[in-house]
Amino acid sequence: MKRMLSLALALAPLSAWASPDPADWPTVLEEAQGQTVHWHAWGGSTATNDFIAWVGERLADDYDITLTHVKLENTADAVTRVLTEKSAGQDEDGAVDLIWINGANFASMKDADLLFGPFAEALPNWQYANTENSTLTHDFTVPTEGYESPWAMAQVVFMHDTKDLPERLGSMDALLDWARKHPGRFTYPQPPDFLGTTFLKQALVDLSDNPKALSEPVNEDNYVEVTAPLWAFIEELTPLLWREGRAYPPTGPRQLQLMNDDEIDLAISFSPGEASTAIANYQLPESVRTFVLDKGTIGNASFVAIPYNSGSKAASMVVANFLMSPEAQLRAQDPEVLGYGTVLDMNALPVQDRAAFRTLDLGIATLSPEELGAVQPEPHPSWMTRISEDWVARYGVGN
Questions:
Q1: Mean pLDDT highest for which of 140-154, 215-229, 302-316?
Q2: For the whole model, what pTM was predicted?
Q3: Which of 16, 73, 266, 295 could bridge 186 with an S-S bond, Cβ 3.0-4.6 Å?
């Protein structure tokens, strides 16, 4: 697979590359020196913010690059900023140099020609990427085509406090049955929060009788039929939620706080190592463990992309390349730091780096790769947008 990608890159016409040319890495490094990268990334997690700060320190020391974390509540805000600049004719030195992105936001930027590239598969550390995993080359079914670079793997898990919920739940039907017996002990972040919408997607995938439809754009002809199991499930679940579904935690971290305060026994996460990281940081009790559903759970990759009008394209590529480095990937996978899954292929790594990953303690509540089981593909990004809007229309914003 890697040879085929390399051959494709070598045969690509020079006009396929925007300036600076990522294939000329020495020139990229030279141009990157002294540049400032405004990385627009979600800022709702202290652990993630600390990791980004560490990345900035490393880039400053080794490459004379200044990394500024522009903390977002919603990635769409950065997308809107780039679109506004394009509409105003600001095609150089835009406010956004790098975006933590995936899903519908990536699809919309790609469709609107708002991205620099392709660049990702020319980065030096791409040689270590696990390209056998199509998740690194397809974002919510949309081919990335080198316009975004992966830096973290995610898969849905459910965190449960074993003091009150000792056994795993194998399906959404089982979750509903448990909620009937234990009302008020579960909730999820309020859509359109990403994690809250992920719960809706996971329920849809687990309950769906027509999974093929989810890999294609939303079709109005069958939308009601395809989503009927989801809304029947949500309708029955809602009054059984924390505060009877009249209020929701606004974010994932707030959901963890509810579990730590013993207000709920079950929570959703998109990071298999989050529970271990939270336990290490005293944000969750040591009795918390994780599980996945019998049919598997949704998985995807987190990416970074460079807007077409960034004034620091060279330095942004250096940031993307560093995020894929064995050093950064190992730190991100450490449950005492982030607990994120790696995008790297262990067999492609140098022996010393491979050993470091294999000896890393993933934490008391982290499932092994074997225990994580099958990864369910993300639905087409249009499903996330549509069911989120539908949920808001049906259930409001909570009080």
A1: 302-316
A2: 0.79
A3: 266
